[in-house]
Every structure is written in C-alpha cells, then in structure tokens.
Amino acid sequence: MKYRLIALDVDGTLLNDEHELSERTIETIQEVHDQGCHIVLCTGRAPASTLPILQQLGLEGTMITHNGAATVHADERGQTLVNEFAFTISEIEPMLDYVRREGIHFDVCTSFNMYIERISEYEKQMYQKFLINPKLVTNVSELGLPIVKFTLFSQHELDRVQKEWEEQKLYGHMRMIRSGDLFIDVMSAKANKGNALKALAATLEIDPSEIMAIGNYYNDLEMMAFAGLGIAVENSPEGVKEAADAVTSSNNDEGVREAILKYCL
To answer: What CDD domains would the database entry show (predicted)?
Structure first.
C-alpha cells in the first residue's frame, strides 16, 4: 500500500453536517486499517470529544487534537499526552480583555479540559453538538495552567474581530487562525496540524510521501501540505481546494470513503 498513514480532519470532513459517520465510511476505514494503515484523527476538537469518534470507528491510536496543539494516544488504559504546544494565560490577556469587553463568547483549553466564564443556551447547544462539557469558572485568568488553545465563538462578530486583531497585531507572537465560519483559534506559533503530523510521522518512521491527509478548512492546510497527498473535500472553501493536490466528494457524500477507495484500496 502506497500510503501508510491517513490523517483525517473530523468536522466538515469525516463527519457529515449532522455530525454523523456513515456505516460505509466506517467499514472502509476499518478495511484500510486492517491492511496496516495508521488512521490519525487531526481535529480542532479536544481529546474528550475526539475519542468517541475514534471509538465509533472501532480503533485505538494517536489523535492530533486542538488543531495540532496537543497530541494524545488513546487505548484501553486511557489517554496519554504525547506532545503539546502550550502557552500561559498572561500571553493572551489583551485578547481576553477585548472579548470580555465586546461580550464575545470564548473558552480556553488545556490539553484535556476546557474552561469558560459564562454560557447561554445557544452556546450550550454548540458544545453539546461537539460532545464538549466545559468547566464554568469565575475568571480563567486565575487558572494558572498551561493553555493550548483560546477560542472565540460567534455568529456575526468574527470577521470584524479578525480584521481588527490583524490590524492591531493583538495576538502578538501567537498564531491566530480561522478554524471555521463561527470560530477563531489562538495558539502557540508552533501549533498546527502539519507540525504535529510531522512529529508523529517521525516517531512512526513514516515518510511524508507515505501520508494522505484529508481536510476541509484553512486549519487543515499545513497537514495537507506536509502529506504526500493532500485532499480537500468538495465542501471546502475555494482557497483550500486550490491548495490541495486533489478534491474528493463532500462530507455529506462520503468524500473520505471515496478518497480511500480511490487512492488506498
């Protein structure tokens, strides 16, 4: 088999718009896994909300989570942190001041937990959809924990926020990415799916030419570029499809299954 590792984005790529996995996709992934291919979920999700997807696939193994900021191995013994790109709360205080002042919802994540200062019914539904159970605290600035991701969530404000933060360089030496239409993530400058995949591939002694990566959004570009074959699903923005080596069907039309059948089986 030409590809020894398949890196899969989850939301908008592996899952359909109802956040579901098709049975045929599960069967195809299990088939290629049984032939010796490593399946690695590479997602903006936390480990706790990624693990149920891995289990639904009937697999164990390594997950690249928080958009590359935390790599976690999961097996019957539990979850073990393999690598993280962390930062301190003090490094994002100017941004925390901004979102508090503007009333924009945010959360901060350690590798294994998420913390919020407030929540409405709309945000509660969003977290439930992504299988997330955040911890409510009075002030995240008092956590004193290594943070791997700071996320903004809004239906209408993020284009303005992104523009203002880029003009003001409010994120400083950090990395700001748009991980979805409704999300902005701020992480360590070293944290991205490509760097995490590169580190994992080195551990497994797998050459980039032996890796296929499938994604749907701008936070997938680094892993698609690192892989020997980077594939975008049809529902990706045009910029993502243009950067890809190939395009497969949409997440609602089993695009991941189609790509595995075409290039691996």
So the answer is: HAD_Pase (cd07516)
Q: How do the domains of the chain map onto residue ranges?
A: 5-84+191-263, 89-187
User: Among residues 73, 155, 161, which one has the least CA distance to residue 122?
Assistant: 155
- The candidate with the shortest Cα–Cα distance to 54, out of 81, 29, 28, 35, is 29
In three-state form (DSSP H/G/I as H, E/B as E, the rest C), the secondary structure along the chain is: CCCCEEEECHHHHHCCCCCCCCHHHHHHHHHHHHCCCEEEEECCCCHHHHHHHHHHCCCCEEEEEHHHCEEEEEECCEEEEEEECCECHHHHHHHHHHHHHHCCEEEEECCCCEEECCCCHHHHHHHHHCCCCCEECCCHHHCCCCECEEEEECCCCHHHHHHHHHHHCCCCCCEEEEEECCEEEEECCCCCHHHHHHHHHHHHCCCHHHEEEEECCHHHHHHHHHCCEEEEECCCCHHHHHHCCEEECCHHHCHHHHHHHHHCC
Q: Mean pLDDT by 10-residue block, N- to C-terminus, for the chain (265 residues)?
A: 95 96 98 97 95 95 96 91 95 96 96 96 92 95 95 94 94 92 94 96 97 96 98 97 98 98 96
89-187 under CATH 3.30.1240.10, yes or no: yes
Tokens linked to 30: 């299990």
Report the length, in residues, of the chain. Answer: 265
The single residue listed with the structure tokens 């590809």 is 3
The fold for domain 5-84+191-263 equals Rossmann fold (3.40.50)
